[in-house]
Amino acid sequence: MITEKSSVLEPLELTRLYEILRTPGPCITIVLPPYHPGEPAKSAASLLKGNVQDAARTLSGQGLAKAAMGDLLEPLERLANDPASLTGSRWGRVIFCSPEVFCQFQIMQPAKPSMTIAGCFTIRRLLSELWTPGLFYLLALSKEDVRLFRCTHEGSEAVALPAGVPATLEEALAFDPPDHDLENRAAVGTSTGSMHAVRFGTGSGRETQGVHLSDYYKLVDRGMQQLLHEPGIPLVLAGVDEDLVAYRSVGTHRNLARTSLHGSPNLSAPAPETFMHVCSLLRAEELECEMDALKQAKERAVPGRFLTAPDAIVSASFDGRVHQLYVDERAEFIGSYRSWFNEELFNLAAVETLLNGGKAFELPAAMMPDGAAAVAILRY
Predict the structure, then answer these.
(1) Is-contact 88 262, C-beta < 8 A?
(2) Which residue in 37, 79, 165, 259 has its CB near the most CB atoms, within 10 A?
(3) How far apart are the C-alpha atoms of 95 and 132, rounded to whole Å?
(4) CB distance 48 to 86 below 8 Å
């Protein structure tokens, strides 16, 4: 049995899901929303106790033996009666329980309380969580100060800029009055021996300010190229429009996110609320990219590799043919397919798609082509 021994919840990640999605049913999936003591909403412990009672009634109705049901529900009952494990939290959690698995994970997306019992774990409502980075870098831009933060669900920490990258525009310009040659240079690199110079013209007037700022942000961007090598970790900008536009005009970092935080940047460590807000922006950016990919796939797909028939999609997912699966977030397809009783089959298709190396997404109805409840792009 895979058990959750730590009281500190891990973020929900695809690599961990691979470990548990192949477990045989019955599979209980419970989602508990964030809870702050003193709120009028039910506590996590109260919700979980109600879930356990509902699960017992459902399992009994499905004919599960009393002894087997007791073994299955025992870890959930133990958790529900352990107040220390269900204290207030700004994050929600998902609990997976089956005869072979009992584990729980932190979820950052807005979560509604739910409990499902099926032949596999219910992950449809959690799909966006899988494609939202649990780590990103936030680059706070201003002429007076540039700061970099490494942000995760556990908190944010400042990251020192690479040597040779000035923290302010004034430092980059490095004026030495009187200014006779109308040209200054700022070094780029890890040491003075290897630095290249970026020239800063020192004319007067607003027309030169944009040049100064652009040249300065070239230095900062080169520093980001030097410092940030982790693949797929977004670099998010924060600042007023002038700084954002200036940086994007010269920024070439491969992980530079399209989304930004607009307004005067807070140069202290970002608050948890900022982390959640940026995560929601990155999720929206991912959905927009997937919508574009879906439109292109529809236009270019070879006939027979673009499925919208629900039965055909489920069958193809079990055959390992689904490369990408898109499901209308409002759609339901209830039935039985190689499972122990009726369940939501688009969820089953999503599970099989992931287990066979594909990707699965939930999209708003407006993003689905021709009103389809689901779309599968096939490998062959």
Answers:
(1) no
(2) 165
(3) 19
(4) yes
Taking residue 181's Cβ as centre, other Cβ atoms within 10 Å add up to: 7
* The pLDDT value given to residue 196: 53
Q: Order of strands, edge to edge, in the sheet holding 147-152?
A: 155-159, 147-152, 135-140, 235-239, 256-262
Are 213 and 243 in contact by the 8 Å Cβ rule? The answer is yes
166 DSSP 8-state letter:
-
Q: How far is CA 9 from the centre of its chain?
A: 16
List of residues 6+ apart from 258 with CB closer than 8 A? 285
Angle of the 44-61 helix axis to the 66-80 helix axis, nearest 10: 170
Of 232, 238, 235, 298, the residue nearest 266 (C-alpha):
238
- Residue 160 CB burial class (10 angstroms; 0-12, 13-18, ≥19): exposed
- The average confidence (pLDDT) of the chain is 84
| Structure token pair of residue 329 | 């977030």
Find out whether 92 and 10 touch, Cβ atoms under 8 Å: no
Task: Find, among 236, 218, 12, the residue nearest to 108 by Cα.
Answer: 12
Under DSSP, the state recorded for 100 is S
Handedness of CA 305, 310, 315, 320 (dihedral sign): positive
Q: Does the pLDDT at position 306 exceed 80?
A: yes
Q: Is the dihedral of CA 5, 8, 11, 12 positive or negative?
A: positive
Q: What is the pLDDT of residues 169-204, one digit of tens each?
A: 888 887 444 444 444 444 444 444 444 555 555 555
Rounded distance, CA 267 to CA 248, Å? 20
Burial class (CB in 10 A: 0-12, 13-18, 19+), 5: exposed
Residue type, 138: L
Read off φ and ψ for residue 133, nearest 5 degrees. Answer: -60, 135
CA distance 301 to 96: 36
* Whole-angstrom distance, CA of residue 85 vs CA of residue 81: 9
Q: What DSSP state is assigned to residue 39?
A: -
- Residue whose C-alpha is closest to residue 308's, from 294, 293, 292, 289: 294
Main-chain phi, psi angles of 73, to 5 degrees: -85, -10
Give the three-state DSSP class for 228.
coil
8-state DSSP, 188 = E
